[in-house]
Amino acid sequence: MSIVSSLRFALALGALTLSSGCIINTTPDNSPGSVAVDWTINGSIDPNYCTLSSAASLRLTIYDARGSSTGSYDSACTNFSMVVDLPPGTYSADALFVDSAGKARTTTANLAPFTVYRNRVTTIPADFPTNSFF
C-alpha cells in the first residue's frame, strides 16, 4: 500500500469514526414535576384572616390515582402558597386549615384532580370562604 493510499485510508477511517458518534441515552428521565397550591381566604391573601381564624397552617393531603395517600404537607397560613414535588402522574388532594396544635379550623376542601408533568409546575387554586371556618 502506498503512502498516499495509507493516508487516504486513515482519513476515511477517521471521518467514519467522527460521523458515527451517535449517543443513545437509555436512562429513563425520572425528573419530578410539582404542584403549587395557591390559597385564599374569602378571596383574599390578607394575613389578618389567618390570625383572626387561628389558622396556623394549611394542611394538604395528596392522593395518587389509586386513592393512596402520598403524604401530608403543611405550610404557614400566611404563605398563601405551597409547592410539592411529585412524580409525573394524576393526583387529587384535600386541604384544610389547622391551628398550632394541629386541630382542624375549617371544613376540608376537596381539590379538583390534577396532573403533574415532568419538569413543570401545575398550579391549583383553593379558596376558603369565611363560612368554612369553625
Q: What do you see in this structure?
A:
The longest helix has 17 residues, at about 5-20. The protein is elongated and about 95 Å long. About 20% of the residues are buried. It has helices at about 5-20, 45-50, and strands spanning about 35-40, 55-65, 70-75, 80-85, 90-100, 110-115, 120-130. A hairpin with a 5-residue loop joins strand 2 and strand 3 (about 70-75). It has one domain: Sandwich (Immunoglobulin-like), CATH 2.60.40. It has two helices and seven strands. The mean pLDDT is about 90. The protein has a four-stranded antiparallel beta sheet, with no helix packed on it. The protein starts with a helix and ends in a 6-residue tail after the last strand. It is of the alpha+beta class and about 130 residues long.
List the helices and strands and how they pair.
Layout: H1 3-19, E1 33-41, H2 47-52, E2 57-63, E3 69-76, E4 81-86, E5 89-98, E6 109-116, E7 121-128
Parallel strand pairs: 1-7
Antiparallel strand pairs: 1-4, 2-3, 2-5, 5-6
Give the topology string: H per helix, E per strand.
HEHEEEEEE
Which sheet architecture does the biggest sheet show?
A: 4 strands, antiparallel
Give the N-to-C terminal Cα separation: 94 Å
Using only C-alpha atoms, the radius of gyration works out to 27 Å
